[in-house]
Amino acid sequence: MSAEAERADVERLVKEFLAEHPVDSTPDRELRGARFDAGLAFVHFDKGFGGLGVSSSLHGRVEQLFLDAGAENWAARNVIGLGMAAPTIHAHGTEEQKALLRPLFTGEEIWCQLFSEPGAGSDLASLATRAIPEDGGYRVNGQKIWTSLGHIARRGLLVARTDPNLPKHRGLSYFLLDMTSPGVEVRPLRQITGQAEFNEVYLTDVQVPETDRLGAVGEGWRVSITTLANERVAIGGRDSRRGDGAIGTAVAEFRAAAEAGRADAASRDRLMRLWTTAEAARLTNMRANARARGNQAPGPEGSIAKLSYAELNKAIYELCVDLRGIDGMLIDDYTESSPDRSSGGGTAADVRKAFLRSLANSIEGGTSEIMRNILGERVLGLPGEPRTDRDVAWKDVPRS
Amino acid sequence: MTFTPGAEAEELRAVVRRFLEKRSAEDEVRRLMETDPGFEPSVWRQAAEELGLQGLIVPERWGGSDASLVEAGVVFEEMGRALFGAPFLGTVALATTALLAVGDEVANDDYLPGIAAGQTVATVAWGGADPLTSTVTAEQDADGGWRLTGTADVVVDAAAADLLLVVADTPDGLGLFAVTGTPDGLTRSTLTALDPTRALSELQLTDLPARAVGTPGEVAGALATAVDHAVLLMACEQVGGAARVLEISVEYANNRVQFGRKIGSFQAIKHRCADMLVAVESARSAAYHGTWTAVHEPDELGVAAGLAGSLCGETYTRVALDNIQNLGGIGFTWEHPAHLYLKRAKSTQLFLGSPAKHRSRLANLLDIPEVGA
User: Fold this and answer.
1) Which of B278, B369, B365, B80 is nearest to A277 (CA)?
2) What stretches of chain B show up as alpha helix (H) in DSSP?
3) Directed axis angle between helix A265-292 and helix A57-68, to 10°?
4) For A213-217, A383-387, B97-101, B302-306, which range has the lowest pLDDT when averaged over its residues?
5) Are residues A264 and B372, on separate chains, in Cβ contact within 8 Å?
6) Minimal CA separation from A29 to chain B, in Å
7) Cα(A14)–Cα(A183) distance, integer angstroms
8) In terms of C-beta distances under 8 Å and separation of at least 24 residues, what long-range contacts does A75-79 make, across chains too?
9) What is d(CA B259, CA B244) in angstroms, rounded to the nearest whole number?
């Protein structure tokens, strides 16, 4: 089937579905369940697992059609589940594990990501959480950090070390952790904004059954790559219309500042520099998406979008704060709260708080420095850093 | 939606690249930049007769192939990559777009077939920095003929131009005037250009008889469109050069060894190259989107040209500077082509409006309030 015919076909299916399940009279969870069963949850997934086996480029289109019809937007409420867990489980899961996709999609089960550790940030593969084999499964001990939605998550994507005698990348395994297991303790982690959007997760003698391992023993790094590539897409791939997102906020802030006599020619030029850079980033993202069409897995070009948007968001929100004048010395509040949705690119109502939140954009999901390494090595073909730890058993590598 | 050039444009790109690899290799670029007028007439004719490049955007009835700005953009990209010195910017980006936008049938009958056939070199001249506020003036004499007076400070490709289209101020507003040959009242002086690969001239116009193209006072809108088209084609040229410059950096970083390592393995070099990549791809998006918009959403032309004009020249200059830094000492020599790209970059960045001017114009189009200094 041609791409156009496939698109028309999927759009027709959505239309028929919405006629049968009107958004305003169908409870959200029921609607999402039916949508999953109809293959309209992740249309690029296989039939029977929420999909129709069509091109991944149609996923965003279907999502948009449902949003346009007034369906609830779950993107921020189950950001890890929808954006990262689902594609990873679909790519690597057993039939039983793929059964988790339905409650993930309906929102019954929120997911979180248990990757980073206090001692393993950019060098994720050096992580130290241990999963020691025992009867019928594993006993897990360690500490994870930067876990968004950890406080409400039912399940987590966990990477842990199953063999410390192998070099770091080879001794890892990937698990789908039941967050209600005994020994899982979630503590809020207060951040720059005063909020606790993230958590620390302590894992003490947590028993994980063999059947919750995703992929083979020692294949944890390979499985993680799927998650990480999708994370960059989730962080980078947004703003499909000109003037959407952070730059739209900046334009509105500039109008208000001009009205109040706080704007000048220099800030106008600064705004336009950011506007043009943001618009070019949006167009580049569109080109990358068009290139990726039909090709299911996100490629390194996602790193261009991730890098551009991270640096842009910081600069744009800083301009917003500057445009407030002395009001930029204030903030709405620093009350600690644990939000039930991800604020990602800095969507806080208060631009000063959005600025503070945006500072994580160039750190989370791969720092801007790691993105530049990926672009330099995988896109441009430059030689890698000398690796002193590559062929050394993990247990013998120095750690801070 | 996809705004990248399609398969046909890419086929044309391959043909043009092969042509330029043969006809505009670096040693040829260097030979020609020491000559006046700085290009090889036989290659110019070949580009027209064998590849039809001069007539690409000219309608078939005037001997062209009626292709769009998208295809022309791809050709300019390849020319920028090869630092091709022939007068395409003047003849195609400026003069042809101006003639087509103004749409004077008689003038088009007279001039476009020669352009498409590769027999006419043409360019557009104006006084001052901005074609739309030209300081050259035009007055009608007693017989109703037009006479031009003023100085066109910096004119591209004028040295060899058979046809000069002069933007001049008339009592009724802007007009476009044609001057052919070398009549009395026209003095051309060759300037020493920062970019030695592109010929620049100063023109003195003294009571110079000229023929009106279109109706003086009624062509300002058409000229604005033509300038936007020229900005977009030049943006494509800039993207071609910028992408080549990145290739040069990457090639060097993959070969040069210091401290026992290829220098591309150092993050100081690698990260600069990564930033260059992001900048080049951003500029490429703006340029491709620009030519696509000119063809498919002409109402949005101003915004698209403002975006490309803001980004592409600045990006080209930045990556050309980064390239010199990546290359180290060799990048500072006359022998290495790095300086030729930098000079092309800086010079095109300042032609047809600085990036700041483009940003300001774009802000106006987006209805962003103007504020005092």
Assistant:
1) B278
2) 7-23, 26-32, 41-49, 69-81, 88, 97-102, 105-117, 220-253, 267-296, 301-327, 338-350, 355-365
3) 120
4) A383-387
5) yes
6) 32
7) 43
8) A76/A341, A76/A342, A76/A343, A76/A344, A77/A107, A77/A110, A77/A340, A77/A341, A78/A104, A78/A107, A78/A110, A78/A111, A78/A149, A79/A148, A79/A149, A79/A234, A79/A341, A79/A342, A79/A344
9) 27
Distance of alpha carbon B190 from its chain centroid, rounded?
19
**Residue B101: strand, helix, or coil:** helix
The pLDDT confidence band at residue A236, using thresholds 50, 70 and 90, is very low
B123 DSSP β-pair partners: B164
Peptide bond into B37 cis (omega under 30): yes
Select from B245, B282, B288, B361 the residue whose CB has the most chain A CBs within 10 Å, as the one to mutate to test that interface. B282
> What's the CA gap between A146 and A114, in Å, rounded?
8
Residue labelled with tokens 């704007």: A263
- Sequential DSSP letters for A296-325: -S--TTHHHHHHHHHHHHHHHHHHHHHHTG
The reported pLDDT for the residue numbered A60 is: 85
Contact yes or no for A21/A40 (Cβ under 8 A): no
ipTM of predicted assembly, 2 dp: 0.95
- CA–CA–CA angle A38, A44, A46 (5° rounding): 65
> What is the distance in angstroms between the Cα of B105 and the nearest Cα belonging to chain A?
37
Q: What is the rounded distance in angstroms from the CA atom of residue B45 to the CA atom of residue B198? A: 18
User: Contact B282/A284, CB-based, under 8 Å?
Assistant: yes
Nearest one of A83, A49, A42 to A66, comparing CA atoms: A42
DSSP string, B221-260: HHHHHHHHHHHHHHHHHHHHHHHHHHHHHHHHHTT-EETT
With CB atoms and an 8 Å threshold, state whether B270 touches A259: no
- Distance separating alpha carbons of residues A44 and A296, to the nearest angstrom: 8
Residue at token pair 């990036």: B355
Strand bridging mode B146-156 / B137-140: antiparallel
pLDDT in tens, B56-98: 999 999 999 999 999 999 999 999 999 998 999 999 999 999 9
Using alpha carbons only, how large is chain B's radius of gyration in Å? 21
A chain contacts of residue B370, beta-carbon cutoff 8 Å: 268
State the pTM of this model.
0.91
DSSP state at residue B93: I
Tokens of B364: 């106006």
